[in-house]
């Protein structure tokens, strides 16, 4: 690495990691450490591992001491001949392309284009790699700060990542994650019984915007009303976020960017309430509106029958039976709750969701009266003709 490149990198690391405050607290370093560093990463002055150097930037006080401490880490060795691992230092949406940009610090190993990154329980391939100065590169080594465009994984400052290129290992981890999320979906806590509650899914253009949005929602809470943040992400909502929105009956708030038409279409198709704005006070007004509407509503569910179907034949398969049906009235919609009635007295034997809905071997969102279709239900296959 050239001298000027090394100096630029050093300044960049200092800029992103320095702990600063107003001069009134300069003699209370212990208070600053406890307020700004998590218990897991305590400063060395109170038994941790992080170097804490107090000083005054304007008066250039203790700058030499700071540089000496930084140079102590120059002797630490890394292995560049292994898959990369490191930490996220920033995440935001590109203002022109609306693509998610993730900034990573490589702490060990070498990161290459087409590597598979594991971050926050998700895998993604590195398609484009840029240096901190914006130059397109193909590899990055320890101590490099890189920008990855289009990773599409929600990440926060301090989240760790590693590269896993073995396909069998990736497949095994993905299967374990699917089982984990399926179990987690069933463990979503119910809202407080005596307190009105509205679930929120938050999306913003940067981590700072996301934190501001979450803080705004928390400040709106009262002794009689509560906003519960069930999911928060930087950038466009992924399939998991949309599924979680449906399961928890959440309202989606999007701040700081214009969501793409495809995402708006998905939200509308699934009847998911959402609000988008680049102005924070408009988000605040929307939250106030939600509080008023929710406080006026009586908690009462009224079910309406939108369609019925008769099971004509049952196709048995190892992965789940398929009910060959004739739609007798209305329409059968994939995103509606279904009931299975059996016997002369039409006893209710199942209540749940449609896993698959097909007509003429084509996947459908809905099938109208008079048409035939194949139905697979989630958690039920004991169909009767």
From TrEMBL:
Domain of life of the organism encoding this protein: Eukaryota
Pfam families: EF-G_D2, IF-2
CDD domains (alphabetical): mtIF2_IVc
GO MF entry, a single one: GTP binding
GO cellular component terms given for this protein: cytosol
Name by which UniProt lists this protein: 10044_t:CDS:1
Residue ranges annotated for the Translation initiation factor IF- domain, each copy included: 193-286
Segments forming domain Elongation factor G-like: 83-163
Record key words, sorted: GTP-binding, Nucleotide-binding
